């Protein structure tokens, strides 16, 4: 404000300040648009930036080597879950045999994205991949597209009067599904059989 000699108080604005006002999210003019209320969340989800897919040209696979048996004892407990010395009997399980059915064709891969989070596969989890298995609808696979690898769920949809539609599903809504173009070739490198996850 500025006080004049006449005693009248006059409002005086200092003009536009640098970096003042609302910040724009886009580098172009925006417009106001009216949409049905029921579609607001859907449109907001569509506008939300999507992370790039986890396609990678380089992955580190480790071969399985069953050098020694790994027998872990476990108790047999009565059906009512009571536990006494009389009920206790000990058996054992060999994790090599339980987890790996085909040692020569099974590999370990450390996961480097969150695209399969809702399938229980988190960042840095290790997964077992068996190359000897034939992938079916719904299997989680290590796929190869244009020399780039990705872990996704294989989807096969039968079409009337058309070839079966094959695509790769991400188990995380923040990541895109992969639909093949006509010129793209999909190679299923192996089927994921197990998730190795440490809780501590």
Automatic annotation (TrEMBL):
**CDD domains the record matches:** S24_LexA-like
Q: Which Pfam families match?
A: Peptidase_S24
Q: Could you tell me where the Basic residues compositional bias lies? A: 14-24
Bias (Basic and acidic residues) = 1-13
- Report the transmembrane regions from the record: none
Q: Which InterPro entries match?
A: LexA-like, LexA/Signal_pep-like_sf, LexA_repressor, Peptidase_S24_S26A/B/C
Task: Give residue ranges for domain Peptidase S24/S26A/S26B/S26C.
Answer: 85-192
Query: What segment(s) does the record annotate as region Disordered?
Result: 1-24
- Please identify the protein, giving its name as recorded: DNA polymerase V
């Amino acid at each position: 404000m500025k006080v004049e000699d006449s005693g009248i108080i006059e409002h005086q604005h200092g003009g536009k300040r640098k970096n003042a006002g609302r910040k724009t999210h886009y580098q172009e003019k925006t417009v106001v648009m009216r949409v049905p209320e029921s579609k607001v969340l859907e449109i907001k989800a569509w506008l939300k930036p999507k992370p790039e897919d986890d396609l990678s040209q380089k992955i580190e696979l480790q071969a399985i080597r069953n050098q020694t048996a790994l027998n872990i004892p476990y108790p047999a407990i009565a059906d009512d879950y009571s536990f006494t010395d009389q009920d206790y009997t000990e058996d054992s399980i060999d994790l090599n045999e339980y987890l790996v059915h085909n040692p020569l064709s099974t590999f370990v891969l450390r996961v480097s994205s969150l695209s399969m989070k809702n399938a229980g596969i988190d960042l840095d989890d290790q997964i077992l991949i068996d190359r000897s298995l034939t992938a079916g609808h719904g299997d989680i696979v290590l796929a190869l597209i244009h020399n780039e690898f990705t872990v996704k769920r294989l989807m096969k949809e039968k079409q009337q009067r058309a070839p079966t539609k094959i695509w790769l599903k991400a188990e995380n809504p923040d990541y895109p599904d992969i639909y093949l173009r006509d010129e793209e070739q999909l190679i299923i490198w192996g089927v994921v059989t197990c998730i190795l996850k440490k809780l501590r």
